[in-house]
Predict the structure.
Amino acid sequence: MFGKKQKERTVLNAVRRAFFWSLLKFVKAFRQVVEFRYFAQNQLRMRLLKLQAIFLFYRTFWVFSNAVTVGLIGVSLMRIRDYFPLFLVYFLWFKLLSEVAVWYLVRKNYQPRFWFYHNLGLSETALFAGAFAIDLLIAFLLIGLAYQLMRFL
């Protein structure tokens, strides 16, 4: 029915189809990997942009906040070693109350600026939570530094 050349052609066509089919699958898989990598890079860029925006927001009141921290550490430097756990409890409560005062003042005075952060996808709560976390990190670093200095003096 089929000649020798016809059989060779059908086999060759089958091999070509299999090769192109596997090549097509490889290209699709490669495209998905590239798209996922692009998506992941964009996600990372967006998170870094949000973190940068939180630092920018924190810059508006960092002087007051760190002045409160340094003031509290300065007041309690005399006996920080003896009453350190009690100092931490009072410090956290006072820091929380000062952050509430900062929240009220910033919200009252800088209301139009929140649109900038809102357009980046950050809510007011996320801004203040991020700024509070940064503030606590800086405060605990300063407390640790003061505690270590008191141990050596």
About this structure: The chain is about 85% helix and 0% strand. Residues 4-58 form the longest helix (55 residues).
